[in-house]
Amino acid sequence: MERIIVFVDNSNIFKGFRKYNIKVDYEALKNFIARGRDLKNIFLYEGVVYPMNPEKKKWYEELSNRSGYVIKASFNKIASSGAIEKKIDIKIAIDIISYAYEDAYDTAVLVSGDGDFVPVIKKLKELERNVEVWAFKYSLANALLEEVEQENIYYLDNILSEIKM
Fold first, then answer.
1. Contact criterion met (CB below 8 Å) for 58 and 18
2. Pairing between strand 107-111 and 84-85?
3. What is the DSSP code string of 82-149?
4. What residues pair up with 108 in beta bridges, in sequence order?
5. Does pTM top 0.70 for this prediction?
6. Which CATH class is domain 3-163?
7. Secondary structure percentages of the chain, helix, strand, coil, to 5
8. pLDDT at residue 9, rounded to an integer
9. 28 CB contacts (<8 Å, ≥6 apart)?
10. Where are the domains of the chain?
């Protein structure tokens, strides 16, 4: 059975859910992506503001306890330029590559359309790992589209009715 680990860039996909004005059932999202495969782990990455909002903290706890997500929250840091640095992409990239070297999965499932992940995809190909990408059509970077085989690209737009609350 194919072993997968899912890496969710929540900051990236949450914008799409907001654009479509829907609340998502993350348990349904997990189950839809896994589709009967051997789900070894599911990580949710997100930048959060400190102190953490009690509602957000409760949501993380429910997601972790009820749905098995491992929350990888990073507290946002304000750069000298005034920009907010989250470093989420770096954490995702390190985890994807580290777990590949540990032979923890057959397929990495990246839930993000961010083009910053192209070097990660290239490295996974070198390591002979499968990768699939789940993203919104409007936010899927062309560079990712060019790097990942078409049959391994999935659009969240197409499953909204399956995963909304």
1. no
2. unpaired
3. SPEE--HHHHHHHHHHHHHHTT--SEEEEE---GGGHHHHHHHHHTT-EEEEEE-GGG--HHHHHHS-
4. 5, 131
5. yes
6. alpha beta
7. 50, 25, 25
8. 95
9. 162, 163
10. 3-163
